């Protein structure tokens, strides 16, 4: 299960809406081993595309180094789908390489309601998990 | 002195869990070949045919080696090479 503070949950949704119709992406960092997302980091989508996303490699290097120095991990890795459901695509699965992370997918295909779902992706196997939003 | 190589979580199965290993070589490609002797299987996760795998980012100090010379990038004692999983995907 992913337990996520309301403020971070809302920030992901707002980022996805702001970048629509392009895909938005980012990270929630948290203390290593805690499984607790605490810090919101919106990342650039180097692809600037409605169907693909890729972290900019230089920005990723800086962010990963910051996390390392603060003894943090990427607890959540999120991105949006803007015309399809919030379910990992084949490309998402082939790239998923943080077995301890929650992969959050949001869909902005519906103008009014943002779909928000979370998955574990380990060795190519996708397992959806419940999301608990806490105040 | 040697070249320090930082290994991401996903590849630590090849380094007995070590976050950091050391190697030698005059280019990145030679460094990976050297690492392979002690960490069998690692090179194959980094290199595909003649180039870097698209699933990884490799940095020399803080530069992405794709913007340098890829596997031909010269390396020297005291350098740090960082490997990170590329984060990418999309709707298809």
What is the CATH topology of chain A? Cytidine Deaminase, domain 2
Stretches of chain B where pLDDT falls below 50 for ≥5 residues?
none
Shape label of chain B: globular
Structural class by sheet pairing and helices of chain B = alpha+beta
| Terminal Cα span of chain B | 46 Å
The fraction of residues in strands of chain A falls at: 35-45%
Q: How does the major sheet of chain B shape up?
A: 5 strands, mixed
| CATH fold call of chain B | Ubiquitin-like (UB roll)
Cα distance, first to last residue of chain A? 16 Å
Mean pLDDT rating of chain A: 96
Q: What count of helical segments of chain A does DSSP give?
A: 3
The number of E-state strands of chain A comes to 9
Estimated radius of gyration of chain B? 13 Å
Shape of chain A: globular
Interface with most residues? A-B, 34 and 19 residues
Describe the biggest sheet of chain A? Answer: 6 strands, mixed
Radius of gyration of chain A: 14 Å
Give a written overview of the molecule.
The complex is a heterodimer of chains A (135) and B (92). By secondary structure, chain A is an alpha/beta fold. Chain A has one domain (2-134): 3-Layer(aba) Sandwich (Cytidine Deaminase, domain 2). In chain A, 24% of the residues lie in helices and 39% in strands. Chain A has helices spanning 6-19, 57-69, 90-95; strands at residues 2-5, 25-31, 39-43, 52-54, 72-81, 102-107, 115-122, 125-129, 131-134. In chain A, the strands form 2 sheets. A 6-stranded mixed sheet of chain A has the order 3-2-5-6-7-8. A two-stranded parallel ribbon of chain A has the order 1-9. In chain A, strand 6 (102-107) and strand 7 (115-122) form a beta hairpin. The two termini of chain A are 16 Å apart. The model of chain A has no long low-confidence stretch (mean pLDDT 96). Chain B is of the alpha+beta class. Chain B has one domain (3-85): Ubiquitin-like (UB roll), CATH 3.10.20. Chain B is 17% helix and 30% strand. Chain B is built from 2 helices and 8 strands. Chain B has helices at 28-38, 42-46, and strands spanning 3-6, 20-23, 47-48, 51-52, 56-60, 63-64, 80-85, 88-90. In chain B, strands 2-1-7-5-6 form a 5-stranded mixed sheet, covered by helices on one side. A two-stranded antiparallel ribbon of chain B has the order 3-4. In chain B, strand 5 (56-60) and strand 6 (63-64) form a beta hairpin. The termini of chain B are far apart. Classes of the chains: A alpha/beta (135), B alpha+beta (92). The A-B interface holds A 23, 25, 43, 47, 49-55, 57-58, 60-61, 64, 77, 79, 81-84, 88-92, 94-100 and B 8-10, 55, 57, 59, 62, 64, 66, 82, 84-92. Strand 4 of chain A pairs antiparallel with strand 8 of chain B, so a sheet runs across the interface.
């Amino acid at each position: 299960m992913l337990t996520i503070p309301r403020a971070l949950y809302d920030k992901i949704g707002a980022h996805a809406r702001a970048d629509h119709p392009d895909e938005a992406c980012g990270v929630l960092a948290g203390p290593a081993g805690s499984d607790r997302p605490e810090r919101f980091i919106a990342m650039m989508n180097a692809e600037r595309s409605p169907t693909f996303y890729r972290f900019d490699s230089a920005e990723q290097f800086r962010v990963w180094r910051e996390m390392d120095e603060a003894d943090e991990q990427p607890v959540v890795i999120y991105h949006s789908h803007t015309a399809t459901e919030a379910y990992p695509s084949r490309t998402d699965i082939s790239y998923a390489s943080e077995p301890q992370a929650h992969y959050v997918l949001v869909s902005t295909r519906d103008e009014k309601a943002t779909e928000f779902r979370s998955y574990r992706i380990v060795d190519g196997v996708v397992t959806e998990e419940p999301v608990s939003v806490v105040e | 002195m040697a070249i320090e190589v930082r290994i991401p979580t996903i590849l630590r199965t090849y380094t007995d869990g070590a976050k950091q290993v050391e190697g030698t070589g005059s280019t990145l490609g030679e460094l990976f070949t050297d690492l392979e002797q002690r960490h069998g299987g690692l090179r194959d996760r980094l290199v595909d045919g003649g180039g870097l795998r698209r699933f990884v980012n490799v940095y020399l100090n803080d530069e992405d080696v794709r913007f340098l010379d890829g596997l031909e990038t010269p390396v020297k004692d005291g350098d740090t090479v960082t490997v990170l999983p590329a984060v990418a995907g999309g709707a298809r």
